[in-house]
């Protein structure tokens, strides 16, 4: 379907074009002296030139609209966040801290664990990577409840900690989303995060509460758990 503003442009240009094909041409009284030569107006250079002019104007307007759209979009700053679930709580982590979302792997426990948050190690493409519990680090309820009939695939997040990557298992990954910086600023000012560990703010997303994690504080806690 052609947009109404495109039709307006076509109409405005038509006003300035001598539509001879409607007066003396194939759609008119057929008195044009060139009609016997061209058989149909669409074969005439006058008709072709008029059509080209209209198309050029339409293309120019589309380019102007696209440029304006890009300019507006560039004014809206967003931040890329990974949304995931642990137990009953949904959380968000800046993707700059994320290396990869990987399938769940077997976690091998270690003797003489250094901290309660250290679950052990997992094999990630042939390399043993330390595996930590975000549930323990964040002080969350470890009980996971999933609606009946829901298909949930647990994942492992490989995050870039100081000194090397670490793996954290999560119950569900929603995906990566670009969030307007203004929403994040409002969340950080809300004060709702004061009682939550390593949290920058709390916001609403897809009709549910979402806890936005402070990646710097979280990475420091991860490092402490490994030393």
TrEMBL record:
Classification via PROSITE patterns: CHEW
Positions of the CheW-like domain: 78-224
SUPFAM superfamilies referenced in this protein's UniProt entry, alphabetically: CheW-like
Top-level taxon: Bacteria
InterPro entries: CheW, CheW-like_dom_sf, CheW-lke_dom
Pfam families with a match to the protein in the record: CheW
Keyword entries, A-Z: Cytoplasm
Gene3D superfamilies xref list: CheA-289, Domain 4, SH3 Domains
Location(s), subcellular: Cytoplasm
PANTHER family, A to Z: CHEMOTAXIS PROTEIN CHEW (PTHR22617:SF45), CHEMOTAXIS SENSOR HISTIDINE KINASE-RELATED (PTHR22617)
Name listed for the protein in its UniProt record: Chemotaxis protein CheW
Source organism of the structure: Pseudomonas umsongensis
Lineage, top ranks: Bacteria, Pseudomonadati, Pseudomonadota, Gammaproteobacteria, Pseudomonadales
């Amino acid at each position: 379907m052609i947009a109404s503003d495109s039709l307006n442009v076509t109409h405005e240009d038509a006003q300035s074009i001598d539509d001879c094909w409607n007066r003396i041409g194939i759609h008119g009284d057929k008195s044009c002296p060139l009609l016997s030569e061209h058989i149909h107006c669409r074969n005439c250079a006058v008709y072709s030139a008029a059509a080209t002019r209209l198309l050029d104007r339409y293309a120019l307007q589309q380019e102007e609209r696209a440029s304006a759209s890009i300019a507006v979009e560039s004014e809206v700053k967003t931040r890329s966040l990974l949304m995931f679930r642990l137990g009953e709580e949904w959380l968000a982590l800046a993707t700059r801290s994320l290396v990869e979302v990987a399938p769940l792997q077997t976690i091998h426990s270690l003797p003489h664990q250094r901290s309660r948050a250290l679950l052990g190690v997992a094999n990630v493409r042939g390399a043993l990577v330390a595996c930590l519990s975000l549930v323990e680090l964040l002080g969350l309820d470890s009980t996971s409840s999933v609606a009946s009939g829901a298909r949930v695939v647990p994942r492992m997040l490989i995050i870039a900690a100081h000194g090397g990557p670490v793996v954290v298992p999560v119950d569900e990954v929603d995906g990566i989303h670009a969030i307007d910086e203004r929403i994040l600023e409002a969340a950080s000012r809300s004060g709702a995060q004061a009682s939550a560990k390593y949290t920058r703010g709390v916001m609403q997303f897809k009709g549910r509460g979402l806890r936005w994690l402070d990646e710097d504080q979280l990475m420091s806690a991860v490092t402490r758990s490994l030393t």
